[in-house]
Amino acid sequence: MTEITKDFQGQTVICTFEMTPATAAELMEALREAYTHCIRHQPGFIGAGLHMNDAQTRIATYSKWDKRGDYQAMLRTPEMIKRNRHIATLCRSFEPVMYEVQADF
């Protein structure tokens, strides 16, 4: 389980995907496969969660990394470049954003 704590010194990444209900299940499966077979095995990966809204029009991923460069290196691997090309065909847009935890409750 990935915990959210203010004292975390690594990199948090929240990525949002916008899609239609027609591609929601396929996109979620592509993301599950990416995390199962590639992302979680990359250096610096700590943990992640995948979330989908009730309308099946948005997916959000939350991941934690030891450091910013670990996340960036994962994106540059040939496998993730290939997977992200496929993922891009299943959604209108996706946006990864790096965050630092400011408070936890």
TrEMBL record:
InterPro entries: ABM_dom, Dimeric_a/b-barrel. GO terms for molecular function: monooxygenase activity. It holds the Pfam family ABM. The keyword Oxidoreductase applies. Keywords: Monooxygenase, Oxidoreductase. Residues 11-101 form the ABM domain. Coiled coil: none annotated. The keyword Transferase does not apply. This is Antibiotic biosynthesis monooxygenase. It comes from Rhodobacter xanthinilyticus.
